[in-house]
Amino acid sequence: MKPLRKIVTIAALSAALFAAAPAWAGWEPTKPVEIVVAAGAGGASDQMARMMQAAIQKNNLMKAPVVVSLKGGASGAEALMYMKSSEGDPNKVLIAYSLIYMLPLSAKLPFDWHELTPVSVIALDQFVLWDNVAGPKSVKEFIAAAKASGSPFKMGGTGSKREDHVLTMFVELKTGAKFAYLPYKSGGEAATQLVGGHTESNVNNPSENLEVWRAGQVRPLCVFDKERISYTAKVTETQSWHDIPTCKEEGLDVQYLMLRAMFLPGKVTAEQQAFYVDLFQKLIQTPEYKDYMEKQALKPVFLTGKDMLQFLEDDGALNKQLMTEAGFVAK
Amino acid sequence: MEAFGLLLHGFAVLLTWKTLLLMMVGLVLGVFVGVLPGLGGPNGVAILLPLTFTMDPTSAIVMLSCIYWGALFGGAITSILFNIPGEAWSVATTFDGYPMAQQGRAAEALTAAFTSSFIGSLVAVLLITFLAPWISSFALRFGPPEFFAVYLLTFCSFVGLGREDKHKTVISMSLGLLLAGIGMDTVSGQLRMTFGSTDLLRGINFLVAVIGLFGISEILLTMEERLALHGHAASISLRTVLSVWKDLPKYWMTLLRSSVIGCWLGITPGGAIAASFMGYNLAKRFAKDQESFGKGRIEGVFAPETAAHASGTSALLPMLALGIPGSGTAAILLGGLMVWGLNPGPLLFVEHKDFVWGLIASMYLGNVVGLVLVLTTVPIFASILRVPFAAVAPMIVVSCAIGAYAIQNAMFDVWLMLGFGVVGYVFKKIKIPLAPFTLALVLGSRAEDAFRQSMIISGGDMKVFWSNGLVGTITTLAILLLFWPVIDRVVGGLRLRNSAAKVEA
Fold first, then answer.
1. Which residue, of A162, B71, B77, B396, has the greatest Cβ tally within 10 A?
2. pTM (predicted TM-score)
3. Do B347 and A214 touch (CB under 8 A)?
């Protein structure tokens, strides 16, 4: 994905310019800044928030202290409603992901991301089809085994009518194999249940299955993206993230990526928004961030302003279409 | 004996003045947050986590885990002195601990609580030291049917072994299950019983309910009765401590039983709370005079505290070995590990030996130092009882309110807590037990998820709960416990008839 790399390079250059310029003269938070996490403790968003907290603190990117506030109630709906009700408060910043499109559709949550102030898209998360090492060795064998099985294969995932569930529906649609989808509370739980042989497969994000993969307990079958993951350093003894084929290469034409983006509450001033755009531009230059991206196999992207808005509109429309096709939109 | 060598290495890593100092600081902070109801371990650790970012991982985890031990010790203090459980698993400690304080035996109860906490954790740490590899493979055998069976066992043990009227226990439990259903349903992805309210989205927080049900209702009752805390000035002396310790061997069976239950449930994620209740119920079941439980019996403090701490400690094992936190605090520690670049999982024990064994060694040291620390400070805590009720009560109410607010930073929770205070008062007046209610509130949604996941797996076939030896044993045990009073009567009846027959012959 060349255009993306270009964006990153441009962002990096402009950030370097910003860093070289005299101290930022505009608005700056004077109260502690709250990073709002729409998930439970230990999950991917929480880890990202802790990384940001450490990176900001260690590199002195901001004078005000950073606190992480976990609002994972009701599958993250709590965080969305919290941001919605914090209109005009520039000391709260949300780590958003696909839930901003999905929850309003599946659970009729009175929320619309247009009511918040977009700051920046900071990464895209991948989805990988995993099975137990004792299971089939390739996508073809896996699908064949799923079709031949007397009782449907069990697919574990996080939550119901969300990313993992949608992906499972599309794997079913494309292959004709039937799965019994098991909703768990977190990706970590889905990972251990796969290792324990209670499910046949899951579609966890790389970070959620990383440790059990390294321990040789699960096998990545394919990644749901147009191209392979870029990181080529060995993760297990024999494989890197880059060695995982794309699902399309394996004859399963399904693609899905999940945004990780920062939002401020609605009705904040342009100056306040600019401060955070600058802050996150500096943040993505830190070694902590780069290290985190590689470890979690996240796709580096940095979008702000119009580019971000366009991305959100397109991504929102895509998610809505997928949810509608899967029949997950509440009436 | 590889484990032993590694452990010694761990001690070598730890024994520096700097780490020992951090340990003391952590313990004092931990006791402090444990004493404040609602603040508790998870919040304490979360607040202090950023302080440790600049430390090296071993020092940081030593300090954080000492906060954890401190909070575990501290939770017992308010349960015994004010009938307000600081942590969810301290609820069962109030049953006999508070009556003891009312009888002027606060110091004895506190000593018992601290000592049994120490024993419970010690057993669990020994277990972690020697059985770590084996235990992680045991935990992996738990799928949805096994989880449901464990929850069922806990519920059934309440109905079957409880001292209260069975129908009142069932009423109380059903109400708890109903309230546990509020919020997002994991299996269908739909909101339930929120009536369009944003505050109800996240469901009813268990701690908010507990603070109200136990703390506020106790204040209401005390106000109605005598406007005085029924406690006498407790002075703890070396003699009290020694006399409690001298009696310890008498209770070896209770301590052992609770340790085993605690370790077993601690390895099962989310089991710490269930453990303290089960430890208490079983101690009562096997006691000769069950009537004296709930009236200030020292075994009633030993049993739940040992179990809670055994499980609180062993809950760290699935976190380290599998990355599944067994408790709220363990979940925050998990977040901390990630920040320091340590990924919990099967490889942690292989790749970061220094860290893992340093942590395990710190569990031993932290517990010993913690025990000495809390025992020497008991007089300070016990002297709170000497302050007139009129001065203490408002302080307790305020600290309850802060606690309820701090859990999710929501004013709504403070009102909810007051509401639960009234509910608790009414329940106490009409003698409906509170414990089944709180148990159902905390385990209800997990039990429901596990049940429905099992049904998805089996396609609606109940036989899944007997599909292998592990789940079958637990389910059968649960049903036996549920009908225990009936079985007990039948068996007792038969025995009576037999002996009668013998006499006739």
1. B71
2. 0.80
3. yes
The answer to whether the beta carbons of residues B439 and B177 sit under 8 Å apart is no
Give the ipTM of the model, two decimals please.
Answer: 0.84
Residue of A nearest to B198 (CA): A81
Q: What is the pLDDT of residues B396-427, one digit of tens each?
A: 788 788 878 877 778 999 999 999 999 999 99
What is the C-alpha separation between A244 and A45, in angstroms, rounded? 24
Other beta carbons less than 10 A from residue B241's beta carbon = 20
Q: What is the pLDDT of residues A268-326, one digit of tens each?
A: 999 999 999 999 999 999 999 999 999 899 999 999 999 999 999 999 999 999 999 99
d(C-alpha A211, C-alpha B52), whole Å: 24
Two tokens at B256?
A: 């052992």
Provide the token pair at B496.
């009576």
* Residue B303: φ, ψ to 5°: -60, -55
| B325 to A162: CB separation less than 8 angstroms, yes or no | no
Reading the block at residue B415, the tokens are 């009102």
Q: C-alpha distances in angstroms, A30 versus A52, A63, A268, B3, B51?
A: 18, 8, 15, 50, 20
Query: Which residues of chain B make contact with A80, given a CB cutoff of 8 A?
Result: none
CA atoms within 13 A on the CB side of A50: 28
Give the residue on B whose Cα is nearest the Cα of A77: B201
Contact (Cβ atoms closer than 8 angstroms) between residue A180 and residue B456 = yes
If you write DSSP's letter for every residue of A249-299 in order, what string do you get?
A: TTT------EEEEEEEPSS--HHHHHHHHHHHHHHTTSHHHHHHHHHTTPE
Structure-token match 């913690």, residue found: B370
C-alpha to C-alpha distance for A203 and A243, rounded to whole angstroms: 17
Maximal C-alpha separation, chain A: 68
Is A182 within 8 Å of B453 when comparing Cβ atoms? Answer: yes
Put simply, the chain A residues between 55 and 94 with a CB less than 8 A from any chain B CB are 57-58, 65-69, 71, 73-75, 77-78, 81, 85
Type of residue at A47: Q
Query: Following DSSP, what letter does each residue of A151-215 receive, concatenated?
Result: SPEEEEEESSSSHHHHHHHHHHHHH---EEEEEES-HHHHHHHHHTTSSSEE---HHHHHHHHHT
